[in-house]
Design a protein that fits this description.
The protein is about 15% helix and about 30% strand. It is of the alpha+beta class. The chain folds into two domains: about 240 residues, Alpha-Beta Complex (Sulfite Oxidase, Chain A, domain 2); about 140 residues, Immunoglobulin-like, CATH 2.60.40. It binds ligand MTE. Belongs to the nitrate reductase family.
Length: about 400
């Protein structure tokens, strides 16, 4: 295949055959690896072949910044590293298709089957996009959007997407032009030598193999920005969406921020649970949760009676560890979340239940809520692209006895 030159972890589950490469780790492997995902378990979403870029010339890689700016510039990776403050942020990337498989079982969508492992977390090192934009000085009034383009060559042109200028210039939103992941150079699948990282938004905004940034009056016209990454009204079937494409893919339906979501990881689907009832014996249910836009998860609730009653789970926020001390390192630059209130990472939850209660129940349901009181809905919202599926996550209880 065009990607045959890349070494890939055989443990990853391939979701779209041999090419292009799209994969997620088995959910329990991802979860057991902890807060930071080792690069070999990080999910991959490629729309086409990975551009073949010489390892030794990465410092000469250039990004052109142009359009409605006072000064157009071309930066080499070396320029970015030498001229701007180097920062590191922990960020969870989530594919908009995470959990799509559940929807495809009910009503097939246009997209392929992601389980619940279409997300991963890394320490991303780079420079603030806002620094670059302030340097090139967008033209006041006219400039409204920032368009990003990658080097991959797809059937309908390059991969590209855009951001509102006001978001792209906000340090609070933490957008980075990044060249390292957990202290190591990006791997080819994750955008070597340099990519955009957009915290709190769907993964599709984090353009890999970044080549060009254009400041513009209008949003990106790239094919996938327009005809993908949208949640279309549920009345529209995938078949009609294909035929009536130009009618339905309205900019109104564009998705940017992630929706609130959670999953049960333990027990996993189909796992035989040992529910032998003994006095004081408890079972620990575990999982993850996240939300978009930097919003913190403020409750995770578990139901053993199909949503009639709910109990609070205990939440742990490993991201907070990075808020206590500023961290300086020559490889990482500044890792300083001490003044940052945003939540850009997944959090973990546990719920301990007497085994006797679990043995009497037939399913576990979980729902998370964020600080804006966005909560996961009971019902699915089947949509043609199958994106942002975040209904209650449910696992049937299968007993081993
Ligand atoms: N950037 C380019 N140039 N080409 C792509 O196919 N896929 C996007 C985004 N950036 C993509 C891209 C999508 S849909 C996602 S979810 C993330 O990259 C996935 O990043 P990862 O493969 O590093 O996990």
């Amino acid at each position: 295949t065009p990607d045959g030159w890349i070494n890939r972890n055989p443990e990853l589950l391939r979701l779209t055959g041999r090419h292009p490469f799209n994969c997620e780790a088995p959910l329990t492997s991802l979860f057991d690896a902890g807060f930071l995902t080792p690069p070999h378990l990080h999910f991959v979403r490629n729309h086409g072949a990975v551009p073949r870029i010489d390892q030794h010339q990465s410092r000469d890689w250039t990004i052109r910044v142009h359009g409605l700016v006072e000064r157009e510039c071309t930066f080499s990776l070396q320029d970015l590293q030498d001229e701007f403050q180097v920062v590191t942020l922990p960020v969870t990337l989530v594919c908009a298709g995470n959990r799509r498989k559940e929807q495809n079982i009910v009503r097939r969508s246009l997209g392929f089957d992601w389980g619940a492992a279409g997300l991963s977390t890394a320490l991303w090192t780079g420079v603030y996009l806002a620094d670059i934009l302030h340097f090139v000085r967008p033209q006041k009034g006219e400039a409204r959007h920032v368009i990003f383009e990658g080097a991959d060559d797809l059937p309908n042109g390059s991969y590209g997407t855009s951001q509102r200028l006001s978001w792209a210039t906000s340090y609070e939103r933490g957008m980075l032009i990044a060249w390292a992941m957990n202290g190591l150079a990006l791997s080819p699948d994750h955008g070597f030598p340099v990519r955009l990282i957009v915290p709190g938004q769907i993964g599709g905004r984090s353009v890999k193999w970044l080549k060009r940034i254009e400041i513009s009056a209008s949003e990106s016209q790239h094919h996938l920005h327009f005809f993908d990454n949208k949640v279309l009204p549920t009345q529209l079937t995938p078949e009609r969406a294909r035929v009536e494409k130009f009618w339905w893919y309205d900019p109104l339906y564009l998705i940017t921020e992630l929706s609130v979501n959670s999953a049960v990881v333990k027990p996993e689907h189909g796992e035989l649970c040992d529910l032998i009832i003994e006095k004081d014996r408890v079972y620990t249910i575990q999982g993850y949760a996240y939300s978009g836009g930097g919003r913190r998860i403020n409750r995770v609730e578990v139901s053993l009676d199909n949503g009639l009653s709910w109990s609070l789970a205990t939440i742990e926020y490993p991201e907070d560890k990075y808020r206590t001390v500023p961290y300086e390192d020559s490889a990482f630059g500044t890792l300083d979340l001490t003044e940052r209130d945003t939540n850009f990472c997944w959090c973990f939850w546990t719920f301990q239940v007497p085994v006797s209660d679990l043995a009497r129940s037939s399913s576990i349901a979980v729902r998370a809520t964020d600080e804006a009181m966005n909560t996961q809905p009971r019902d699915m919202y089947p949509n043609a692209t199958g994106m942002l599926n975040n209904w209650w996550f449910r696992v049937a209880i299968v007993q081993s006895t």
